[in-house]
Amino acid sequence: MPDSAVIPATTTFRMTSLAWALAVQRATETLRTDSTADAPDARPDSHPGDEASFLAGLDGRTRAGIEGELTAAGITDDAGILQPQWLQALQLSAVAPIQADLVCRSGDSSTHCRVNLFDGRGLGVEFTRPVATAADGSVAPAGVADVVTVTLFPETVLWPVMARSLRRFPELLAGDGGGPPGGADAVDPAEPAEPADAAEPVRATVHLDVRSRAAGTDRQYRAGGVWALSDQLYSVRTAGPATAQRPVMAAVDGGDIARQLVWHVLGVQEFLANSAREASAS
Question: pLDDT over 90 for what percent of the chain?
Answer without folding.
Answer: 60
